Amino acid sequence: MSKVLVFVHGSGSHPRNYYQATLAGLTELLGAEPETVGVWYSDLLDENHAAERKKELDGDEIANFKAAFSMLVYSDFLALPNHERHNAAFILPAQFLAQLIATDLAQVAEYLFSSKTYGAVQTRMRDGLNKAMGMGDEIVIAGQSLGSVVAFDCLRETAANLNVATLMTMGSPLSKLRRLNLRTPDLGAIPGNIGEWLNLYDTTDPLANALGPVFPSRPFRVRDVFVDVDSDPIRIHDYFYNQETLAELAAAML
Question: What is the pTM of this model?
Fold first, then answer.
């Protein structure tokens, strides 16, 4: 059976061909270039669009969300076992950590709280999945950071119409969104129509966590895999360029 790989980028500014370097590395591992689809929505979250909806995005609900999310980032760092701790995480105050993730968090908030943005991004995601299904027998989805939430939201509604071999989330904030009651443990159509959910995370990633503890639905289980992306505890990591990620992607495409 032929597989098609669907990339979904995270927050930040990304060109349309953001996945080309990852595809080149994957092609080297597989010996042939796999069929791919890149879901791109960076233009929907740029500063111009945010300015148009500034009033909508300046309410107390969003301010409270940003503050609560930032405190989770800090508390998650404090909860790490000693062997996973990095000194920088403990000399920086919570407010400074919040400032360091402010741009990414602003885009996450816009996606979550602006119905117009949410709908437009989800349309791009559905179109990408439909295109991929027309190109092969099965699809493998690789969603990074905010892209993991975009993919998750879409699959909860549409997985029954798809043939997904693997959902791979990387650096996903879904655990924090679950703990803030912005997502439920209900997996919708995911359990019966996805072969495996593989979650890659680094404990030094401010947004990421293991997801198994917050999505314990049976008989479907998330497989959490620690990947050593970086030792810097304050940078939003790019999993797409990590060798362990490439190895997992290559295995999923076989």
Answer: 0.92
